[in-house]
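W.,

You were right to be curious about this one. When I first looked at the sequence I had no strong expectations either way, so I just let the prediction run and decided to look at it fresh. Below is the sequence, 146 residues in total, followed by the output.
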Amino acid sequence: MDSGVQGGKAYGLLKCHQEEKLNAVNEAFLADEQYADVEDLALKLDLFKKKYVEFDLNDKGDIDMMGLKRMLEKLGLAKTHLELKKMMSEVVGGESKETICYADFLDMMLGKRHAILKLILMFEGMSKEEKRPEGPASRKTFSQLP
């Protein structure tokens, strides 16, 4: 990057560049025949991109061990270091990588590979869809109680 760019502007340029890279990966998945039968593929890719960017803590375009740990803690599922390593291995297809790249993340979410992280993220999305009543509970008479 240009060394004359400072502070927020440099961060904005970094995020813009990362967004372009993720959009290019999304375009490749949209053009891939393997995923042609996936329903609402463009919408799913957009949602997956938002989720991925949310946990890219190192701002390098990938999710490292700390990003994965934070993702799971935010969902209320704290894991040990060994469990995190196993989950990371499942996502990247058994390779011993230190990070999850966006293409591996999409392969996991859209493909047939069974990974614990995929299940966690799918159920997390389902729980957000349910509308819970807001405000105080309605008053009940004594006869209405179970």
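Here's what jumped out at me. Helices lie at 7-31, 41-54, 65-74, 81-91, 102-110, 116-129. And, maybe more interesting for your project: The two ends are 66 Å apart (CA to CA).

Coffee later to discuss?

I.
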